[in-house]
Amino acid sequence: MTTTAIVWLRRDLRIDDNPALNRALAESERVIPLYIHAPEEEAPWQPGAASCWWLHHSLRALEISLRRRGSGLVIRRGGSGTVLREVARESGAGLVCWNRLYDLWAGPRDEGIGKTLAGAGIHVKVHHGSLLREPWDNVKDDGSMYRVFTPFWRRYLLTGPEEVPEPGPAELPPLPRGLGSLSVEDLDLVSRIPWHRAFGDCWQPGEAGAMARLEDFLGRSAVFEYGRERDLPGQDGVSGLSAHLHFGELSARQVWHAVLQAAGGSGGAGEHGVPERVRPFLRQLTWRDFAHHILHHEPRTAEDPFDRRYRSFPWDENPELVLAWQKGRTGIPLVDAGMRQLWHTGWMHNRVRMLAASVLTKNGLVHWLNGARWFWDTLVDADLANNTMGWQWTAGCGVDAAPYFRVFNPARQGERFDPRGDYVRTWVPELAAMPSRHIHEPWRAPEAVLRQAGVVLDEDYPRPVLNLADGRAEALRRFRALG
DNA sequence: TTTTGAGTTGTTCGA
DNA sequence: GTCGAACAACTCAAA
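Structure tokens for the assembled complex are given below, as produced in the milestone run.
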């Protein structure tokens, strides 16, 4: 029996259902939970500012709960391979366990580190802990990847059940004495510019916060209304678990099984193991697996259109539009509401993400990567697989993408999904007194209505900085020319 | 082997 | 006001 094992924690910042941690505990007497800060290894997609804020708080939460169980968290900085060898040497560890990451930079890096450690006589165990299934497990009969979601999802239903989560330890062995560690603060993750000051009111990073959110989502039965409510940004109809899932504060498996349990389903093999009333939500959860499936099989798509024809698409440079879009000053209320919610809370409702992306790429003809990079920096749930898939879907160049002619109309979207204007009123307070009929198109409102609402266009709130109809027509021309 | 039908998230136009 | 058609091309699995 190996006496000391290192658990290399990355984006599995939890104690429950952590296969690497359980493995280390099963095979050794002493266990060292280790976090290595090496953002430069993640280039060119180093964590953005909002992600770093989340990471800071998540690490603190993890450290506290590890200590409560009798252990602690060792934090180091430097090349991951080097630090792992150092800590192994200092502690005499003969085993390193981790849960797999799927990012393009992580695969080769981890494989290299695994070989180096093995060469130094250290055992390595790699586990599956982030997705419902490994990206290579849910493939077509001929072994190739899926390009359409529905068949991918159908296969989940037919070939379930999903793995059951493993309970985590109630107690942990103490850390070996004398192991040096940085503090979370030393990592300097939180920007000195306090633009994230409201994040703490919205989010509780860490395993306990993740569990509380899941329990709330299930407890108030929102999961059963998800099919209807998830599209309404002014309502509390979604789970809000995205960032928790990204950092692995809870696993997709835990969510899957908790939902099934709440629905009283067996979760057994065959489609009927998944009750109808939780299918809409579990289907969305499976989209996360699908995004990782795509990026695993086509890693180039983080920056290159999945549909290669789009490489020659004539995007426009439009820095003024990009700036207005980022600041939530486009003059299109629903888009501005979303962009301000993003800036303020580090998160945006998915319905509005699609609209904001559609306006930037299809009305504004700006390359989707401009939007993807902004989201990357400002979203607390920024995830390369999800972000890439979402932006390429909207731009029309991705897997199972929106057809080029599907261009969202912000006013129509507002009527359908924010009919009373609640969401706009919350995030664009200068329009709060506008009547619902006109709130999504203030530039078309009669003078008297504007006056009554106390809105002076271009002073209190801008007119649209782009002509939606012209942009749409031009986009359709260019997309058609591509075919 | 070939055919067929369906496929996350939409809008506009004309009858 | 409501309704269907048009706006492509391609993937996938079942027949």
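Residues 308-482 of chain A form a domain with the DNA Cyclobutane Dipyrimidine Photolyase, subunit A; domain 3 fold (CATH 1.10.579.10). The longest helix of chain A spans residues 49-68. Further analysis is deferred to the final report.
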